[in-house]
Structures are given as structure tokens and as C-alpha cells.
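Q: Here's a chain of 266 amino acids. Please give me its 3D structure as C-alpha cells.
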Amino acid sequence: MTTQLSPMALALLGTGFTCLMTAAGAAMVFFFKKEISQNQQRIFLGFAAGIMIAASVWSLLIPAIEMAEEQQMIGYIPAAGGFLLGGLFLLVLDRLLPHLHVDCDTPEGLPCSFKRTTMLVLAVTLHNIPEGLAVGLTLGLAGEGAASLGAGLVLALGMGLQNFPEGAAISLPLKREGLSNGRSFLFGALSGVVEPIAGVIGVLLSGVLGTAMPWLLSFAAGAMIYVVVEELIPEAHLGEHSHAGTLSVMGGFMVMMILDIALAAG
């Protein structure tokens, strides 16, 4: 699959779609008169976690290994090294950026005077960074002819699918905090704006650091897995032996795996 669009245009289209899906999920605040049930939260966030795990493997780590081997490198070295650096990067952001997770009373990051609702939004914004970076990197490579356009579009589609429940999972708790439907939607939608920004950074990196792309793809994968383990799975309350949560993780993984295998070739 080929395109005449520039790498930057492709990345903006892809991350624009993922941002739009976050807004669509945040719009669920207008349809839920009561707060989201714990079971619904498990399903929403579990599905998002499953998609991110599969995307990290099929859309990022495997292409990174293949690209490294094409460059006559030992495939697992940049894959493992980049993966570790991505996790460490999110760990540093987690320690520095003030934010608050759903159903928690103690904020994380540096001390600040931000409102509770602001820190709830920042928590989601934090883990939208690696998603936008991943989409920007893959579509930037596709625009340069160094990767499959289909693979980049599938990754954007997968990230968009998991952003929908994530958008709902932030706007509905904001409503519970006392915000109006309109403000809850606005803040939920704004949490996705960081993805186009990170996508642009991904394109710029792909153009300047071509030989380092295996490291960058693995970096995005490591950051995404950090988000899954640190935030999505705990917030989905999967530690309570939830069948619904477990099956939703498996369902999300299966959907992304099928999309990548069936649609990304070419």
C-alpha cells in the first residue's frame, strides 16, 4: 500500500483520528445518567489494556527486531534496550508530572496546587504520550517508504479503538467529581490532544534518526507496556479476579492481533 501524503500529514491524520476517538469516548458522559459501574470500568480499561499489549508486540517490537536485522544488527539488542528505556522514561514522567489516578486520594508526582480534576486529566494525558509517539513513528516511516502503510494505519486504528473506552473512563469519573456534563466531556477530550503533539515528535525523530528507528519503536513499546501495568490494569481492578476484566483484556488483545495480521501486510 502506497500513498502520496507526506510523513507529517500521515501522522497528523492518524493521531487526529486517535484524538477524535478519545473525544467520542468522552462523549459517553452525555449518555450515562449515573456513574459508570465497576464492571463497566473493568471492561473498558481491560479492553484498552489488551489492545496496547498486542500493539506493543505486533506493531512495534516485531517490526523493530526485523528493522534491526535488516541493518545488520542483533535484533534483540535494540528491542530490549529501547523497551527498557521507554519504561524508564514513563517512570520518570510518572514521578515528575503531578497526576491522580481514578479511585485514589493521594496524588503522584511533584507537589503542586492543581485541582483534583486537573490531576485526573493529567493521569490520562500522561499515558497518551507513548500512543501518539508510536502512531507518529510508524506512519512517519510509512510516508518515507521504510515501513508498510497498512501497518501504520492498523496501529492508528487500534489506538483509536482503545482510546474510546479510555475517553469514557476519564469523563465519567470527572462527572462523579461534580463537573457538569459539558466540562467533563471537554476535559476528557482534551486529554487526547497530546497524541498529535507526540505524533509530530515521532515523525521528526523518524526523519532525523533513521538508523535508530528500532530503538525508537521499542521505546514506544516499553512506554506503552509501562502504562498498561502501572495504570490500566490496576484501574480496571483486575486484581479482584474479575472474569469480565480478564476476558476484556483477552478480547482487546485478540482484536488488535487480528487487525495487525489480517490488514497490515502490505
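Q: Can you summarize the key feature?
A: The CA atoms of residues 96 and 218 lie 23 Å apart.
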